[in-house]
Amino acid sequence: MSDVRGFSSAIGSITRLRERARDPRPALTEAAEITGESIHRNFEVGGRPRWKPHAESTRRSTYGPSRLLIRSTALENSFRPFVTRSSAGQRSSLIYGPRQDQGYKGGPGRGHSPTPARSFAVIQPEDAEQIGGVMLSHVVK
Questions:
Q1: Is the pLDDT of residue 86 over 90?
Q2: Does 41 reside within a domain?
Q3: pTM above threshold 0.70
Q4: Three-point CA angle 22, 129, 137, nearest 5°
Q5: How would you write 13-77 as a 3-class SS string?
Q6: Is residue 43 included in any domain, yes or no?
Q7: Residue 18 domain-assigned?
Q8: Which of 41, 46, 87, 126 has its CA 20 to 30 A from that of 59?
Q9: 79 in a domain, yes or no?
Q10: Can you tell me the distance from the alpha carbon of 15 to that of 90, in angstroms, rounded to the nearest whole number?
Q11: What is the pLDDT of residue 27?
Q12: CA distances from 23 to 16, 17, 123, 138 (A)
């Protein structure tokens, strides 16, 4: 029985692709880095899309002019990458991060004033495209 020309080579290529796809952590690590850079850019430019400005009461009570969410840079600098066998991203350990990112309708008592959503944990289309390229090149190399 004769071998179809190129079949053995094709099987070898498929085997190599399968082996590379078996451990996506190198590509996921790069994807987590891209995500972190995207989050930092969101802070640098005041949101993508732009964040709502501070309320007048907030402007009066702060220690002078400050960029949105940047008075101490604690939130922006709290993000750390994580990588598992099947996922990657950035996490912040600060409890107020979700309130700033997703907004808060408010409630009774001190510290419960409404907070508009100022989404910073957003992957921009160009970053998603770059991550897709990283994943593809990891498998196809």
A1: no
A2: yes
A3: yes
A4: 35
A5: HHHHHHHHHHCCHHHHHHHHHHHHHHHHHHHHHCCCCCCCCCCHHHHHHCCCCCCCCCCCCCCHH
A6: yes
A7: no
A8: 41
A9: yes
A10: 32
A11: 92
A12: 12, 11, 23, 10
